[in-house]
Amino acid sequence: MRGRRAGAPRRRGGVPLWVAGAGVLAALAGLAFGLRLSGGAQDSPAAPGPTDARGTLSVATWNVCGVRQWNCEDTGPAEEKRDRIEALARQSGARVILLQEVCSGDLTAVRTALGDRWQSLFRPYTAVREERTSTVRCTGDGRGTAGYGMLSALPLTGVADVPLPQPATGLRRGILCATARAENVRLCTTHLNPQQGRATAVTAKLREDQLRALVRAASGPRTVFGGDLNTAPPTGTGTDAWARTDGPYNTYRECDRSGESGAPRETHRSGYKIDYLFTSLPRQGCSVLRSPASDHWALLLRVTTG
Fold first, then answer.
1. Which is it for strands 56-63 and 96-103: parallel, antiparallel or unpaired?
2. DSSP state string for 222-265
3. Which of these, 224, 289, 258, lies nearest to 89 by C-alpha position?
4. Tens digit of pLDDT for each residue in 140-178?
5. pLDDT at position 2, please?
6. Could you read off the pLDDT of 19-43 as tens digits, one per residue?
7. What is the Cα–Cα distance from 60 to 97, expressed in whole angstroms?
8. Shortest CA distance to 150 belongs to which of 90, 214, 100, 87?
9. Which of 151, 243, 150, 224 has its CA nearest to residue 184?
10. Which are the contacts of 132, defined by CB distance < 8 A and separation ≥ 6?
11. Which helix (H) or strand (E) holds 142?
12. Nearest-CA neighbor of 276 among 185, 216, 196, 214?
């Protein structure tokens, strides 16, 4: 959800979000990923299992809330976040995991723990001030910088960084894409700017432009893309950025979209859905997986690739 300018408050759902200086950075055991849940976040009946069958691919997205001073103090230690990422692969069966607000050191540690078959891609959030570019450091020894990326049990080729239209101030972020050649699927992840904030408010036009850029980056008949888009689902009146003719909802199916009138499940503990996975491949199942290790829930999508 985050991506805050130094010293500036960010709000959504009535929760103030504060960050320390941009050049400085940085639980309780709960439900493991892959467990069946009750209530609004219950897994779908066709939830992916530990291993994909031939001709299928399971992809997850999760905002880790890994930067402690980004209002993540109450979401558990780094060890628990790393365990949850591993569980997405080991227990929930994800072969590709899209990540936001992850620390580079944590991503490396998880990739090592999962074994040589896995590879990772990482891009840091950056900020430009007085003609200097800086990154955001994660607190804790060896945790590195804050950013977005992906883990994959499949070899990745065609890695590309696609620029995003950006507000005048605040953290810079882009779109990271790669192709899982074994399944011939293009994968893209991003973390769009928060919509609210005093100095970095995202206008409807900017959000529309960002969503268009995301669709262009991931275009094709065999693609899975998404992440933390910091945008609510379309409204019935069709007055928001999703309603534009070239937005992702008009071209692809979303993981949790069961029908034109189906209400998607929340993906953030404040009660919002702001995390998405889109595809044009046949969908076999979609799960929303809760964890106390973040203020976001993970999405897990299984698609037919063969």
1. parallel
2. SEEEEEE---PPPPTT--SGGGSTTSGGGTSEETT--STTPPPP
3. 289
4. 888 999 999 999 999 999 999 999 998 888 889 999 999
5. 57
6. 223 232 233 233 334 332 223 333 3
7. 5
8. 100
9. 224
10. none
11. none
12. 214
CA distance 73 to 237: 38
When computed from its CA atoms, the radius of gyration of the chain, rounded to whole angstroms, is 18
Strand partners, 254: 278
Per DSSP bridges, beta strands 10-12 and 119-124 are: unpaired
Tokens of 183: 């399944």
Q: Which residue in the block uniquely carries the two structure tokens 């580079």?
A: 104
Query: Alpha-carbon distance 70 to 17, whole Å?
Result: 6
Give the CA distances from residue 207 to residues 26, 44, 231, in Å, rounded to whole numbers and listed in that order: 27, 30, 8
Instruction: Judge contact between 193 and 175, C-beta under 8 A.
Output: no
Q: Which helix (H) or strand (E) covers residue 17, if one does? A: strand 15-17
Residue 25, both tokens: 């950075």
- DSSP at 137: B
Q: How many helices (H) and strands (E) does the chain have?
A: 3, 16
Question: How far apart, in whole angstroms, are the C-alpha atoms of residue 23 and residue 133?
Answer: 10
